[in-house]
Design a protein that fits this description.
Layout (H helix, E strand, L loop, with lengths): L6 E12 L2 E7 L4 H4 L5 E3 L6 H13 L3 E13 L6 E12 L7 E6 L9 E9 L14 H7 L1
Parallel strand pairs: 1-5
Antiparallel strand pairs: 1-2, 1-3, 2-7, 4-5, 6-7
C-alpha cells in the first residue's frame, strides 16, 4: 500500500535527560527482540496538543511529572511490517525534578491504545552514550536533544 493510503497515527515521544542519562524502559513480559528498549511515548488524543500528550504519557507510563524543555520537531516512522501505519512522531526533551539516576522502578499501561491487555515494564536511566539501543526509530531526534541539553 502506498504511504499516502496508510493510516497515520499522531504520537508524542519524550526524551527525559538527567545528568547525561536518558530515561528508558523495557517490557517485563515481552521478549526484548519484540519490544526493544523504549522511551516514554504514545498516541496524541483528539483535541490534545502534542506537548500535552508528552506530559501525560510520561506521567502515565513512568509515574514521573515532567515539563517540556524543547520541541525537537517531527518525523515519520513506517511501522510495517508490524502494522500498516505511519507514526507521525512529535519529539520533546523534558525535565523532571528530584530523580535518582541509579534507581529502577515498575511502570506500565493499564489501558493500551491498541486495546490489548495491561502491560508492565521496568524504567531505568542509561548513559546517553548508550542510547543507540532505542527501538523502532525512537532515537530519531536524540542527537538534536543532546546538543540542546
Amino acid at each position: 500500500m502506498p504511504p499516502s493510503e496508510r493510516t497515520v497515527v499522531e504520537k508524542a515521544v519524550c526524551y527525559v535527560i538527567v545528568d547525561e542519562h536518558l530515561l528508558v524502559f523495557t517490557h517485563d513480559d515481552e521478549p526484548m527482540d519484540v519490544t526493544g528498549v523504549q522511551v516514554p511515548a504514545g498516541s496524541i488524543r483528539t483535541g490534545e496538543t502534542a506537548a500535552d500528550a508528552a506530559i501525560r504519557e510520561l506521567r502515565e507510563e513512568t509515574g514521573l511529572h515532567g515539563r517540556i524543555v524543547h520541541a525537537l520537531g517531527e518525523a515519520d516512522y513506517d511501522l510495517a511490517p508490524m502494522r500498516d501505519e505511519i507514526a507521525h512522531r512529535h519529539f520533546f526533551t523534558m525535565a523532571v525534578d528530584d530523580v535518582d539516576i541509579d534507581a529502577s522502578w515498575r511502570g506500565g499501561e493499564n489501558d493500551p491504545s491498541d486495546g490489548g491487555a495491561p502491560r508492565t515494564w521496568t524504567c531505568r536511566w542509561i548513559p546517553i552514550t548508550q542510547a543507540h539501543v532505542l527501538a523502532g526509530g525512537l532515537g530519531a531526534k536524540l542527537g538534536e536533544a543532546t546538543r540542546q541539553a
